[in-house]
TrEMBL record:
Gene3D superfamilies: NAD(P)-binding Rossmann-like Domain, UDP-galactose 4-epimerase, domain 1. It comes from Rhizobium lemnae. This is NmrA family NAD(P)-binding protein. Residues 1-212 form the NmrA-like domain. Pfam families: NmrA. InterPro entries: Ergot_Alk_Oxidoreductase (IPR051604), NAD(P)-bd_dom_sf (IPR036291), NmrA-like (IPR008030). Coiled coil: none annotated.
């Protein structure tokens, strides 16, 4: 009989990818969500839905009954550490065999005194390690789908790209690679004492990215150094303070190092920034090609 897996954060950006992959693999999945209707809309009867809140001990206990493995993810907030520690305790009580935790980027944890999100994840990592449960901690670098969203939006709108991070390079990672590694770690019961530090295959500055966008769209692309990065606002006060801390650390070049973890675990290269941008900018590119084709016929 296959393991039964509890997925937390399943209705969020990364959790959705992890859940879909596990469903495709035929795994037995339960998702813990405060929004059961959303989970039903996403997956119908393919998952068991535990409606509840991580902050509520009763819903935690119920969600962990007969569970073998847990995918642990919480959004950045004041309660991240308390929620995840409570979940680890409840999982140990329920005899869960293995936990895969999505942590913060390595440079936030190594600089936890300058990153409140890094400090919260660091506390959970230490706790998980101390409880002695089989586990894998995944520390992904900045996600392309989040960090490059303002760049893609500007390129699609025909604007100059927002100049960010003071020209520092970043080895962005595609969140599909993170999901693939997480699913592997869950299904294989991968126990590692060191965190899995995931990055893309190469680090890019905004100027490098402008060059790629220019090649893809076949037009000159500038950088607006005055433009504040239009990152989406946060309802959560903790996250509102955490995000500028990320920007300051990235501007020091701390998010530039490249690891080979994705390739080592998945046996393939990480998704490249070029491929990501080609996919994201496909609508603008085909609109341009259509317009050029129309001109040729005139
Ligand atoms: N973005 C990056 O570049 C980056 C880099 C490194 C690490 N990370 C880490 O990735 C994580 C964020 O992942 P994400 O962006 O995929 O998250 P997200 O899209 O914000 O989704 C958050 C999920 O958490 C669930 N949730 C929130 N509070 C809950 C509660 N009290 N009880 C039960 N479920 C709750 C939500 O479910 P419901 O609303 O359905 O309950 C939702 O599924 C953070 O820990 C962050 O540190 C991100």
């Amino acid at each position: 009989m296959s393991s039964r897996i509890l997925v937390t954060g399943a209705t969020g950006k990364l959790g959705k990818l992890v859940t879909s992959r596990l469903i495709k693999n035929g795994d037995r999945i339960r998702v813990l969500t405060r929004r059961p209707d959303e989970a039903r809309r996403l997956w119908g009867g393919s998952v068991e839905i535990a409606g509840g809140d991580v902050g509520n001990p009763q819903s935690l206990r119920a969600s962990l009954q007969s569970i073998d493995r847990v995918f642990l993810l919480s959004p950045i907030s004041e309660s991240l550490a308390a929620h995840q520690i409570a979940l680890i305790d409840a999982a140990a009580d329920a005899s869960v065999q293995h936990i895969v935790k999505i942590s913060g980027s390595s440079w936030t944890i190594e600089n936890a005194h300058r990153s409140r999100a890094g400090a919260a994840h660091s506390k959970v990592e230490a706790y998980l390690f101390g409880r002695g449960l089989s586990h894998a901690v995944i520390r992904p670098n900045a996600w392309m789908q989040v960090s490059l969203a303002p760049v893609v939006a500007a390129a699609l709108a025909g604007r100059d790209l927002p100049g960010r991070y003071g020209g520092a390079a970043v080895s962005f990672i595609d969140f599909n690679d993170i999901a693939d590694v997480a699913v592997h770690a869950l299904r294989a019961g991968l126990h590692v004492s060191e965190p899995l530090v995931l990055t893309g295959g190469k680090a890019f500055t905004t100027s490098d990215i402008a060059g790629l966008v220019s090649t893809i769209l076949r037009r000159p692309v500038g950088i607006d150094t005055q433009a504040a990065a239009s990152s989406p606002g946060h309802d959560d006060a903790f996250a509102t303070l955490a995000v500028p801390e990320f920007g300051a650390l990235i501007a020091e070049g701390l998010a530039a190092p490249v690891t080979d973890t994705v390739e080592r675990i998945l046996g393939r290269k990480p998704v490249s920034v070029k491929r990501f941008l080609e996919q994201q900018l496909a609508p603008a590119r085909s609109a341009r090609e259509t317009a050029e084709g129309d001109l040729q016929w005139q």
